Amino acid sequence: MKNKIFLLSIILLFSIFTMLLIINNKQNNKTYEDNNTNLEKEDTMEKYKVVLTVNNKELDIELEDNSTVNQLIEILKQKELIIKAYDYGNFEKVGNLGYDLITNDEEVQTEYGDIVLYQGNKISLFYNSNNWSYTKLGHIKNIDKEQLINLLGDSDVILKFTLK
Fold it and tell me: For the chain, how many structural domains are there in total?
């Protein structure tokens, strides 16, 4: 009888030890997958450079890290994006995409140079501020407010987005 109890105790300890190893291995794999996912996101934002051309001037865009930007990059891999934008409210130029993108809307206080997705199918480029629910796409890096206002002018403008 003592031998059976001893044997059962060893089997039980071995089973517990094996289960602990399996659990630890799964946790290590999940951490590895999470780390790789984060690296891929960082890689996406650093790997791709989106340029906005307005009136023959190229403007560098610092991209946001969200699924909308990832979808936009996939589109730009296929073709450039050209949008006819009109003035709205004396603070932005807005134009129709002609299709919907994934939205990640949140209440945002925009500033000059911000580029956002509005209502899932419009791109807005701000030259003044506004507070509304948008999906942020990026921000123009290499222009000041006065230069941007002068570049956009008072009338409709063509916004050309390309992947470099």
Answer: 2
Query: At CB < 8 A and 24+ separation, what contacts does 144-151 make?
Result: 145/112, 145/113, 148/112, 148/113, 149/112, 151/54, 151/55, 151/57
Bridge partners for 109 per DSSP: 131
Nearest to 54 by CA among 163, 156, 164: 156
CATH of the domain at 59: 2.40.100.20
Does residue 71 sit in the same domain as residue 125? yes
Q: What is the pLDDT of residues 59-114, one digit of tens each?
A: 999 999 999 999 999 999 999 999 999 999 999 999 999 999 999 999 999 999 99
Q: Are residues 42 and 54 in the same domain?
A: no
**What pTM does this model have?**
0.73
Contact 126, 113 (CB under 8 A): yes
- Neighbour-count burial of 114, counting CB atoms closer than 10 A to its CB (0-12 exposed, 13-18 middle, 19+ buried): buried
Same domain, 86 and 129: yes
CA atoms within 13 A on the CB side of 54: 24
- Note down the domain range covering 25: 1-47
- Residue 97 in tokens: 């995409």
Same domain as 56, residue 39: no
Task: Tokens for 57, please give them.
Answer: 């001037």
